[in-house]
Amino acid sequence: MLQKSFSLYRSIFSVKSFSCIKKYSTAANQQQKPSAFMVFNRETKRIQRDRSSIDIEESRKVDYLKDEIAYRMVDRLLDIKRKFNTIVDLGSGCGHIIKHVDKDVMKKLIMCDISSKMLERDKDINYEVDVERIVVDEELLPFDDNSLEAVLSNLSLHWVNDLPGAMIQIRKSLKPDGVFIASILGGDTLFELRTSFQLAESEREGGISPRVSPMTNTRDIGSLLSRAGFNLTTIDTDDIVVNYPSMFELIQDLRSMGESNAVLTRRPFLKRDTLLSASAIYKELYGNPDGSVPATFQIIYMIGWKPDVSQPKPLSRGSGQVSLKETLKGGDGKSNKSNDN
């Protein structure tokens, strides 16, 4: 279990970098249209992320979760035995991946985010890897087809309306045998907060509203990757539990992270008695013996590769040369089943 006060910085590199902010306005980007299926208000999300970066010191205090997940993502990247020239960090926020990489991993990282203020927060910090900062909407990628070696995305794609469409754009932008590594919040994230609000609103207001954003689940991610055209997919999950003094500190940290609710159908106001009721229910149902309350973050990690002729492929059906039946038999020709007497 992770405590809120713990330090998640494994290594910070004291090095050179160059920074620039620019907005992409390519012909390809202008031709794309957003999905008609809308769940989240992207403009609201941009404003939330902008506001979360105004107070720099307060913003840095809540980097603990995304920094930790970024570290685990880079650990997966290191399993790929190749050195990259340029990697795109999609939905980079203030910069979490960059804290854990060096020139042995890549030469340059392109940080992309919908919020220019988030990109600018740590622009004065020097890193060993060259940095380029670009304002990009994850739903409208400006990159040319077959142009990128790798794309990383750390806890950002759960705010995308058309997740399959975003994955297809990522796959198209990758070179053959390019890799896509992402982390996304899963459906069990903040189940304690969701349950507490639902019970409180049912009791106080006679109905419920979406106070916690809808999220995908693990079994759907594999289908999404395959639908987007990725090969050799890998999916795994982590449950990270962070303890807070009360529900109110959790809500404040989510706001400071830029992770407040952005669902189109959300209610604009929350009654005071409903909020107090939710806090009491939270502590009663899930509270720890020391008076703190846990918040669960389910993290789904995914890896997918753009198809290439050099990648290993399964043998065609019926081409096997070894009998499974013979393999399972022992030296005396009998099956290796144990006798339970």
Automatic annotation (TrEMBL):
The keyword Transferase appears for this protein: yes
GO biological process: methylation; mitochondrial respiratory chain complex I assembly
Chain residue ranges for the region called Disordered: 310-341
GO molecular-function terms, A-Z: S-adenosylmethionine-dependent methyltransferase activity
UniProt KW Transferase keyword: yes
GO cellular component: mitochondrion
PANTHER family: ARGININE-HYDROXYLASE NDUFAF5, MITOCHONDRIAL
Name of this chain's protein: S-adenosyl-L-methionine-dependent methyltransferase
